[in-house]
Specification:
Layout: E1 4-8, H1 15-29, E2 33-36, E3 39-41, E4 44-46, E5 49-51, H2 53-60, H3 68-71, E6 74-76, H4 82-89, H5 95-106, E7 111-115, H6 130-137, E8 140-146, H7 151-164, E9 169-175, H8 184-194, E10 199-203, H9 211-214
Parallel strand pairs: 1-7, 1-8, 2-7, 3-6, 8-9, 9-10
Antiparallel strand pairs: 4-5
Helix pairs in contact: 1-2, 5-6, 7-8
Main location: cytoplasm
Cofactor: Mg(2+)
EC number: 6.3.3.3
C-alpha cells in the first residue's frame, strides 16, 4: 500500500472523518498506520501549544501514536484559508519541514495517510500547491466525494484536475454528508460509472459513529 494523500471535492465534506476511518481500515491489513495533517488552520491554544481538532483526531486514530508536532507541523490559529492564516501568523510554510516530519512518521514502519486542506486546488502557500506536496512525498491520492447536490460535477472536475497535475488517483470514497439529499443511491451509481478510479467505500450518515465503526464500510485496495 502506497502512502496516501486524502483530498476532497470541497471543504466540509468529511476528509478528516474519512481519513480516520481509513487509518482503522488500513490497520486491519497491517498493524501500523499513522495520520498527518501538514497544515491546519483554526487551532486552539492548549497546554502543549497550538493544536487542531482534526489533527488530534488523526493522531488518536494512529498506531503507533506519533508526537503531535509530526502529525501537524504547521498549526495556524486563525480559522481561515491556510495561506491567509499563515500570513496572519507570520509563518512561512517550508515544504522541507513537512517532508522531515513525514519521514519521521514513515520511519516507524507505518503507512502514512496525509490529509490535505479544502479541495484539491486550495493552495498551501503563495508558492506551494497541494500537488507539490504530493510530488515531494510520492503520495497516491484518495478523493473524498461529499454526497450532496452537485457532487457529480465536483467529483469529475476534481478527478480531472488531479490527473492534469500528474497525480495518481488510486481510489475514492463517497461520504453521505447531507442526510436530506434526494436520490443518493442513483447519484452514487452515476459516480461509479464516471470515475475511473475504484470506489473504496461509502460512509453512511452516522454522526455519532466512531472512526473504527466507520472503517467497516471501507475497503482500501492494496
Amino acid at each position: 500500500m502506497d502512502h496516501l494523500f486524502v483530498t476532497g471535492t470541497d471543504t466540509g465534506i468529511g476528509k478528516t472523518q474519512v481519513s480516520c476511518a481509513l487509518l482503522h481500515a488500513l490497520r486491519r491489513q497491517r498493524p501500523r498506520a499513522v495520520g498527518m495533517k501538514p497544515l491546519a488552520s483554526g487551532c486552539e491554544l492548549t497546554s502543549s501549544g497550538w493544536q487542531n481538532s482534526d489533527a488530534v483526531a488523526l493522531r488518536q486514530a494512529s498506531n503507533p501514536v506519533p508526537v503531535y508536532a509530526d502529525v501537524n507541523p504547521y498549526a495556524l490559529p486563525a480559522p481561515l484559508a491556510p495561506e491567509i492564516a499563515a500570513r496572519e501568523a507570520g509563518v512561512s510554510v517550508d515544504l522541507q519541514v513537512i517532508r522531515r516530519a513525514f519521514l519521521r512518521l514513515q520511519a516507524t514502519g507505518s503507512s502514512v495517510v496525509v490529509e490535505g486542506v479544502g479541495g484539491w486546488a486550495a493552495p498551501l502557500s503563495p508558492s506551494l500547491d497541494q500537488m507539490d506536496l504530493v510530488r515531494e512525498l510520492n503520495l497516491s491520492v484518495v478523493m473524498v466525494v461529499g454526497l450532496r447536490l452537485g457532487c457529480i460535477n465536483h467529483a469529475r472536475l476534481t478527478a480531472q484536475a488531479i490527473a492534469a497535475d500528474g497525480g495518481r488517483l488510486v481510489g475514492w470514497v463517497a461520504n453521505e454528508v447531507d442526510p436530506e439529499m434526494a436520490r443518493r443511491d442513483e447519484n452514487f451509481e452515476l459516480l461509479k460509472l464516471r470515475l475511473l478510479a475504484p470506489c473504496w467505500g461509502r460512509l453512511p450518515y452516522l454522526p455519532d459513529a466512531s472512526a473504527e465503526q466507520l472503517a467497516a464500510f471501507l475497503n482500501p485496495v492494496s
